[in-house]
Specification:
This protein is α/β, with parallel strands linked by helices. Helix content is 28%, strand content 24%. The protein has a 13-stranded mixed beta sheet.
């Protein structure tokens, strides 16, 4: 269906196409002009067209999209039953409250870099830089000052280092640890642009994010995820409209941080979800009401860069953007240039009129001065629409009546508009107790708690001996003198090889050994359960299974065989233990990440009928080889296991 937003003076419907909405919609009008109602009409139209919406609500009036109006009150305003039902029957409106349980609690982790390895280097750097600016802004640094620019550079370098070295930060405490012990490569890059004093100040400010009420933003509620916000991970069959209620955040910096973080996730999501079959279509609507504080013309809040990048690139990924403000004079003119459809309500301020006049002059063939003279006198709900759907002619329109109520919802009233089943469906994430020390460890002892009653013994990641931390590892059996011969079968070329081995570096691959009992049921009529003790090995970072198949080590998230039939490390060698400080391995590569026992237990129990007992860190020997073309100079990595000297397949 087209998007029907209102009618003309002669009662003709005003319809917008998917193509024009893909190229963004901006609505300007002074307070009381009806611009928010016009935008909410568009949101309703997206819902009716089964296109999900993410909307930021700075004042509480967008949240009332969850409050359907009584149909009988709409009949006299020309709303028929089919129009009403097409919204109320097939949409669900979720009100998310960052750092608060007033609605559906929502938390954000700005250190979510999953999937970024699929980006090209340019997109990676853009994403990491925007994340660095976002965190720096939240910490109170002015990004226009030298200190702000230095902090931006330091964080970007650290993030890039972590991506290049497969280190997961995950939490601010891990970022603090790296700041306390900056890796040599990063230190060399930042020592000329950042003083030790500034690094200390940065450590202190990041530490403040892990204490007090600000922790709620990062640790309380459903972790922000675009698929969850859009409802693409739901099987209810309803179109989701996610309203992010910003009034639960205390400061403007926190609001800018949250807008920027969600925008970063949106940008990441769209790069990984291109349109199928060309560049025409809409996947969702991204709506920011009262956008002026987030993209001002001069100041650079942390979210401005993220928003500007999204506005520029979103259309080719099918992300339509909708913005509104009562002060167009207070937003960056380059942002307005990205919006092909403009809806102008009553404007009286000279600077606002001056801001929109170039848009009129560049888009219409009519007398722009005559059109401008109409703006101050427009009645509420009346607009001048300029859209490519109408050849950029100025169309005088009146918006249709809302299907939902247009009221402002205070925090204490939000629960009245949230479906109890939805509330129960999103499990609240409790706050972790703060660590006594911000120093990271590759693994941690886990004390037995009531939550561990489903395990037969407390899960431990390491064992101890004479108060020294011990680490499990497998001895390397492939030595450097053998590498040339081991690599030959993997070089391109038959008799004469077109590639050569440029270098080989010994390292360890961190794995997790999971000790469990597998329950095997046998018998035709009376089934007997046989308990089989077994061990499985997982990738330390993403928990995929690491096993031997056809004499080659490889990863897989899905394995058909029962656990006791999987060929793994226990079949090829002995695992020994050694004091941690005697192992030649940089444990900082683990990024301070500890083993998530609950996640592993749930993962194993989803795959098999098992009981999980314990988990341990295991270091598996590998040779990281770099292969180079003899003529082309093209380089590629090759990973060999240190037991058999064969390629590890991913």
């Amino acid at each position: 269906m087209p998007f029907t937003i209102g009618k003309t003076k002669d009662d003709q419907p005003v319809e917008l196409s998917i193509k024009s909405m893909q190229r963004h919609f901006a609505c300007f009008g002074s307070s009381g002009s009806g611009k928010t109602v016009a935008c909410k009409v568009l949101v309703e139209e997206f819902g009716r067209n089964r296109i999900p919406v993410i909307a930021f609500d700075p004042q509480g009036d967008i949240a009332s999209l969850a409050a359907n109006a009584d149909y009988e009150s709409l009949v006299e305003h020309g709303i028929d039953r089919e129009l009403y039902n097409s919204f109320t029957d097939q949409t669900e409106v979720l009100i998310w409250t960052p750092g608060s349980s007033k609605g559906l609690p929502l938390c954000i982790n700005p250190l979510q870099f999953e999937g970024i390895e699929k980006f090209n280097k340019e997109d990676q750097l853009r994403f990491l830089s925007a994340t660095a600016k976002n965190i720096a802004g939240l910490l109170g640094y002015d990004l226009d000052t030298d200190d702000g620019k230095s902090v931006d550079s330091v964080l970007t370098e650290i993030f890039s280092y972590c991506i290049d070295n497969n280190i997961r930060l995950e939490k601010f405490k891990n970022l603090i640890s790296i700041l306390k012990n900056i890796p040599g490569d990063v230190h060399d890059n930042i020592e000329l642009i950042c003083t030790p004093k500034l690094i200390k100040d940065l450590q202190r400010k990041v530490s403040l994010l892990t204490t007090g009420s600000r922790r709620l933003i990062f640790e309380t509620g459903t972790p922000a995820n675009i698929d969850t916000l859009l409802g693409t991970d739901s099987d209810k069959g309803k179109t989701r409209i996610s309203v992010i209620y910003l009034n639960t955040l205390s400061t403007q910096e926190e609001k800018e941080f949250f807008v920027s973080s969600i925008t970063q996730l949106m940008y990441q999501w769209m790069l990984l979800h291109p349109l199928q079959g060309g560049q025409e279509g809409l996947q969702c609507l991204y709506y920011l009401d009262e956008i002026a504080p987030y993209i001002p013309p001069v100041k650079k809040p942390a979210c401005k860069e993220s928003l500007m990048t999204l506005f520029k690139q979103a259309r080719k990924y099918g992300i339509g953007c909708l913005i509104a403000t009562q002060n167009p004079g207070d937003i960056d003119y380059k942002a307005i240039a990205q919006f092909s459809t403009t809806n102008l309500g009553s404007l009286t301020q000279k600077q606002d009129l001056k801001k929109v006049q170039p848009r009129l002059e560049s888009s219409i063939t009519e007398d722009s001065d005559k059109i401008m003279s109409k703006l101050p006198g427009l009645a509420p709900g009346h607009f001048l629409l300029i859209s490519p759907d109408y050849n950029n002619k100025v169309l005088e329109i009146t918006t249709r009546r809302l299907i939902t109520q247009h009221i402002t919802l205070s925090e204490d009233k939000l629960k009245n508009y949230i479906d109890p089943d939805l509330q129960a469906g999103f499990q609240k994430v409790t706050i972790d107790k703060p660590d006594a020390s911000a120093e990271p460890t590759a693994v941690k002892e886990k004390q037995e708690t009531p939550a561990d009653t489903d395990c037969q013994k407390p899960v431990k990641s390491v064992s101890t001996k004479k108060n020294k931390e011990m680490v499990f590892y497998m001895k390397n059996q492939i030595f450097e003198r053998e590498i040339q011969d081991r690599v030959k079968p993997f070089l391109d070329g038959a008799l004469f090889k077109s590639e050569l081995l440029e270098k080989a570096v010994f390292n360890y691959l961190p794995l997790i050994r999971v000790e469990l009992t597998f329950f095997s049921k046998k018998g035709l009529f009376r089934k007997k359960t046989k308990e089989i003790k077994e061990k499985l090995y997982l990738n330390y970072n993403d928990y995929t299974l690491f096993f031997l198949k056809d004499d080659v080590f490889q990863y897989s998230s899905v394995v058909d065989e029962d656990p006791h039939k999987i060929v793994d490390l226990d079949n090829i060698g002995e695992i020994e233990s050694l004091e941690k400080d005697k192992i030649d391995y940089d444990f900082r590569r683990l990024g301070g990440k500890s083993i998530n026992n609950k996640k592993i237990k749930a993962l194993m129990e989803r795959k098999y009928d098992v009981a999980v007992h314990s988990t341990n860190l295991i270091l598996f020997p590998i040779w990281e080889c770099q292969i180079k073309g003899k003529k082309s100079k093209i380089k590629r990595p090759l990973l060999l296991d240190g037991i058999q000297g064969k390629e590890i397949k991913k």
